[in-house]
Amino acid sequence: MTPPVLSVRNLVVAIPSRAGVSRPVNNISYDIAQGEILGVVGESGAGKSMAGNAVIGLLDRPAHIASGEVWLNGRRIDNLGPEELRRIRGRQIGMVFQDPLTSLNPLLRIGDQLTETIREHLPMTAAQARDRAVAALEEVGIPAAAERLNSYPHEFSGGMRQRVVIALALCAEPSLVIADEPTTALDVSVQAQIIALLKRLCRDRGTAVMLVTHDMGVIAEAADRVAVMYAGRLAELGPVRSVINTPRHPYADGLMGAMPSLAVGQRRLRQIPGAMPRPMNIPSGCAFSPRCPRAADKCRIDPPPTLGDDPKGRAACWFPMEHPA
Amino acid sequence: MTAFVEVTRLGRSFDVSKPWLNRVIERLPRRRLVAVSDVSFQIEEGAVYALVGESGSGKSTIGRMLAGLMTPSEGAVRVAGSDLHADSGARKTARIQMIFQDPYASLNPRWRVRRIICEPMVVTGGETEGLAERLLEQVGLSAEDADKFPHEFSGGQRQRICIARALAANPRLIICDEPTSALDVSVQAQVLNLMSDLRDELGLTYMFISHDLTVVRHMADRIGVLYLGRLMEEATPAQLFTRPRHPYTQMLLAAAPLIDGRTRDIDLPRGEVPDPISPPPGCAFNPRCPFAVELCRKQRPELRDVDGVRVACHLAEQIGTPPAP
Amino acid sequence: MIRRFEAFWQSDFGWKFRHSPMAILSALITVLLVGAAVLAPLIAPYNPFDSSSLNLMNGFSAPMVPNAFTGDVFLLGTDDQGRDVFSTILYGLRVSLFVGVLAVLFGLVLGVTLGLIAGYAGGRVDGFIMRVADIQLTFPAILVAMLIFGIAKGIIAPQYRDQMAIWVLIIAIGLSDWVPFARVVRGATMVEKNRDYVQAARLIGRKPMAIMVLHILPNVLNPILVIATISLALAIIAEATLSFLGVGAPPTQPSLGTLIRIGQTFLFSGEWWILLFPAATLLALALAVNSLGDWLRDALNPRLK
Fold first, then answer.
1. Residue C212: its chain B contacts at CB < 8 A?
2. Best label site of A162, B11, C39, C146, fewest CB within 10 Å?
3. pLDDT per residue as tens digits for the range B85-117
4. In what order do the strands lie in the sheet with A176-180?
5. Number of independent structural domains in chain C
6. Do B68 and C203 touch (CB under 8 A)?
7. Domain extent for C35
8. C95: domain CATH number?
9. Which residues of B touch C196 (CB under 8 A)?
10. What are the chain B neighbours of A272 within 8 Å (beta carbons)?
């Protein structure tokens, strides 16, 4: 068995402040294998974006990795300096963000941005880099790629811009891509195109993908496995079909029930009472216990078993839900 | 017997020309953006009418015209028998309220919740004693919340406050402009359930604007599909989701990510929504339509009845696909 | 009152204040000078404008040196008429601050009103108001003030001139500094008026006037405090400049600027204290108020958080 491309072990991100230390990411562990798409899903405040940024060392101070390890292709990267991390970003880890306008420099032609990134990470002449840039644009489905090299970002439509960002993320052939809400700003019809593109490119190249989103529909379409985050912790981690059809964690179960698409013909949607706790006052024991219909005294006192300790364990829950076959 | 809301040949265009000095120097023509054109539909009292569309479809513009916040360039809106924009008294008898998309922008941050909720009553000179407390409890918050400021609430709670404010005006029609698209799924379920309950209790009529097909399917009695400011198809959810008639509706349904895990081998949508300032001639959808023929590029199809569904497509009879599951 | 102060002290804003030596120092100097000005009649050892208490023999006493004729000791010396410089500074400070604060208030009310109207109405109204603001900006503030001063001089009868001088000064300075208020409020209003809470108020049937005053105004006031503080420093300097040029506060009600004008005539004859102490006071006041404004701007700017 090949080792995973990305391996995160017991990662904790801490933000010290006047009122104390909050942990938006608290003790999460997961692996992403070659060619696999891991969906990280959670509601706002779950810490999903922070979990992605921690991997690439893009935490804004005072947030920092307090403990845990991040391994990329067998090399530990969480303790590297900023210069080494910068070299890894782009070369080994590509990034796609929600708003394509912020990931592209509005004052540079996209051809220059692509060739610059390519030459930064790969030993190539200007001409070679240019050819490579054209190839990258063609691959993401931009028509007349050679001419479009001279265009500025604002000359592209929203969907085309996100294609350029994907080309930029993939042009140095990274082994891991972190996509943070890549389709949230796009129309439904364009979103389908971008998901399909991301899936195709990663399957063809064997790139591992960490797909961070709030949209369970996107996860269902794109991901192989899904990690459900709640209040900075992993609630459930498993194959996407199993988690959707037979969720074990009561939170994952509630989330699935709240989706209107699955509740067709139902007059009311199933709802989870209450709201996600703020990172400064996470309840003791299981963070979900105050909202959980299955919570017992044990849940309010003891933190639930951590995922990953037991390879068979899918849900971080004392009383996981059973689904009769 | 006329319907509660009657929208006839509604149109709205905006002047998006450069300032006249620029036009003179750069020899630019005046430019008009037609946001809404020739839209007609009816809403029965107590029904939920939904408008779906992607960005640039004009759905919010229609909502604002129905609320009386914007005057139409063409056509008319009649609510409860009187013309909303011609009769000065019509707005009072129609009692229209609106719920907005962004719960962080729709409450005055400097006002306490009590004052926000009571404002409609203050304007009309009604009794406000205990009103805020009663309405807060009706929307699932507590009476003590009346003395707090909006920033002390989460997005879902703010949306409840917005609903309470709308209810204070004792409305008959509520325009809901993407009321849950800024909310998390579990909170969205809470708000949608609340809206359904209130409709049953108070006999409200909703006009529901959304880009999310799953939400629309859950809420609506009748759905209008908009594309570039025109109504493409109008049907009941059952008709629309089992047998979409218009190629655009078919594309939307195919593109929407579904979480129930059917593997779908459909053609990806082609292209993106064109610039509404220079829409294509003929049928607005023809450049992206897989069925388009010469006629579609020349003549704009009128909305017409096909088997009890209103659809604007020349080929509606031929291409009504057999039911997708 | 104490509870509210406690809450302020514990808030983010209070925390930032406690951790900025610059802010504490500026605030301290400002409070000290403003306090001295307000309490001038109680603090000042002499009343410099009571001619009966003046002794010409005390003229040109150096600071802390016993007068050669009378043996009186003056903290900061005396001027040619034997007036105690320390007392004249306290009274001068009073005039300077009075003119500065009222001028800023006048400019603020004018600027905020015009900015609110321009931003909310838009179109031609906006165009007109902002063009006037542009034209206003092409004149140096001092020039505008002198112009108004000149006009007022022509209109007002000579016997009232001294009485009216202070008010003319206030209007002149106020008229020359409404533009920054109007610009900022106009920009903020244009953002706020498109927010949904304003739409909701329209839907309820609120009139434009009520929307502007009740809904938009409270939400555009935050930056006003910062501009007002910085404007205050500028207004005090403008007043001093006008008074120095002889078109400001009359000698019967001297401001710090008037004192500097009087003092500079003695500089080269060796009586340095008549100029130096009023000038130093003006400098300290303007610097303290200005750096307080600078700090406020940083502390209240959400983007710098």
1. none
2. C39
3. 887 777 777 789 999 998 889 999 989 999 999
4. A93-96, A176-180, A208-213, A37-41, A225-230, A233-239
5. 1
6. yes
7. 2-47+72-304
8. 1.10.3720.10
9. 100-102, 105-106
10. 186, 189-190
